[in-house]
Design a protein that fits this description.
This is (S)-3-amino-2-methylpropionate transaminase. The chain has helices spanning 17-29, 63-66, 75-87, 99-111, 126-141, 158-163, 196-215, 241-251, 303-306, 322-337, 340-361, 390-402, 427-444, and strands at residues 42-46, 49-52, 57-60, 118-123, 145-149, 181-184, 220-225, 255-259, 283-286, 297-302, 365-371, 374-382, 385-388, 405-406, 408-410, 416-419. By secondary structure, the chain is α/β, with parallel strands linked by helices. The chain is globular.
């Protein structure tokens, strides 16, 4: 456990003078294209706290975008990484293989949904995993088309930019994009024209009709979907939508790819978000929470699909680096032994309760939604006017930051505040962080 006392502490303006000094250097040294949401520079972290360079202790409700799910500098991760870095740092698995890579693949094959025969391959980032899932699906099916959804986020490489829905800032000026990517409407209950009750069925029938008329099922290699959309606004599809899609894919010989880069590894109160409705995807992509902060990602899928690729067709210099693998083994051990699925559910109960209260108390909170330790509030103009309120979202988030609570925003319309705490946060810190957000709404709404 961390030796940082689990208490929010503000000793300077946030960001403070040391952070501001560093930020001036950042402006001169780092590309302006790398946007920084909150310029408090961090020097230590553990539990629910980030310690900045001015000595402020900030409550972490973002976990580095759902990455430090097991906690920052989690003991089992640190121990395994230290051992591995002293043993050897790199060989390239395809040149001289090592056991840790195999251990991670075995764990993924066991933990991901479905008890069929599986294979995995390891990469460095979420985007790289999604790209490789598309490569595998195209190779296996001999087809080109890929269907992605409104509000989707799958990364920033050329192919994944094409899959990602939102133009600003992710795609603006970066085209042309990869071809044969088609977009379908997402089952977004809160904003579904026919109302939330009709959403699952109408979204699915629209999907089927659009693919049939605009693409042709016989041309589709893969359908790629986040089982709860992350960057797009923590959109939870209504029950039945995912299952209907998965079943339709099977019927049409299409590879169903669940992008669980953000939802995976205990985040939603299950090992994977697909588990909630017993959905078994053909391929699942993982990254973020997999290795306690070290860069690692994976593609796991049905053996016949994953083995359909020619030898040498998948890989890369660093994919499945031994230190990242050691970190993943430490993270997975922590999730198992500390029952982080259970802890994510406990955190989920607190979040549901507190965010639900905000939705009742403030007319500008249109909806509270999400699952487990992945929940959010969507801010609107107020009452019956559901117009997205991006300005208030920005203001409340900025207020929380200056009060020492790190929050993240998201959403196609920039009007969602998302909560992704590390699972080793204390209940007290979580409540305190939410109190600050509530105070921000009180003050600014
Ligand atoms: C973050 C994210 C990605 C991209 O991961 P990177 O590691 O940033 O490349 C892909 N898919 C989803 C669902 C994500 O949340």
């Amino acid at each position: 456990m961390t030796n940082i006392t689990q208490q929010r502490k503000i000793v300077t303006e946030v960001p403070g003078p040391r952070s501001r000094e560093l930020h001036a250097r950042t402006t001169r040294a780092v590309s302006a294209g790398v946007g920084i949401g909150f310029a408090a520079y961090i020097e230590r972290a553990g539990g629910g706290l980030l310690t900045d360079v001015d000595g402020n202790e900030l409550i972490d409700l973002g976990a580095g975008i759902a990455v430090t799910t097991v906690g920052n500098a989690a003991p089992r991760v640190v121990q395994r990484v230290q051992q591995q870095v002293a043993d050897f740092t790199h060989t390239c698995f395809m040149v001289n293989p090592y056991e840790e890579y195999v251990d991670v693949c075995e764990a993924l094959n066991e933990l991901t949904p479905g008890d069929h025969e599986k294979r995995s391959a390891l990469f460095n980032s979420g985007a790289e995993a999604v790209e490789n899932a598309v490569k595998v699906a195209r190779s296996y099916t001999g087809r080109d088309a890929v269907i992605a959804f409104d509000h989707a986020y799958h990364g920033r490489t050329n192919l994944t930019m094409a899959l990602t829905a939102k133009s600003q800032p992710y795609k603006q000026g970066f085209g042309p994009f990869a071809g044969e990517i088609y977009r379908a409407p997402m089952a977004y209950p809160y904003r579904w024209a026919g109302g939330p009750e009709a959403c699952a069925e109408e979204a699915f029938s629209t999907f089927v009709a659009q693919v049939h008329t605009q693409v042709g099922e016989q041309n589709v290699a893969a359908v790629v979907l986040e089982p709860i959309q992350g960057e797009g606004g923590f959109i939870v599809p209504p029950p039945g939508f995912l299952g209907a899609l998965a079943e339709w894919c099977t019927r049409n010989g299409i590879v169903f790819v669940a992008d669980e880069v953000q939802t995976g590894f205990c985040r939603t109160g299950d090992w994977f978000a697909c588990d909630h409705e017993d959905i078994v995807p053909d391929i699942i992509t993982t990254a973020k929470g997999i290795a306690g902060g070290l860069p690692l990602s994976a593609v796991t899928g049905r053996a016949e699909i994953m083995d359909g690729v020619q030898s040498g067709g998948l890989g890369g210099t660093y994919g499945g680096n031994p230190i990242a693998c050691a970190a993943a083994l430490g993270a997975i051990e922590t999730m198992r032994e500390d029952d982080l699925v259970g802890r994510a559910r406990e955190i989920g109960d607190i979040l549901s309760l507190r965010l639900g209260e905000l939705a009742e108390r403030f007319p500008v909170v249109g909806e509270a939604r999400g699952r487990g330790a992945m929940q959010a509030i969507e801010l609107i103009a107020g009452g019956d006017d559901h117009s997205p309120n991006a300005a208030l979202t920005k203001a409340v988030s900025a207020y929380a930051q200056t009060e020492g609570v790190v929050t993240l925003t998201c959403g196609t319309y920039g009007n969602v505040i998302r909560f992704l705490p590390p699972l080793d946060i204390t209940d007290d810190l979580l409540h305190e962080g939410l109190d600050v957000v509530a105070a921000g709404l009180e003050k600014l709404a």
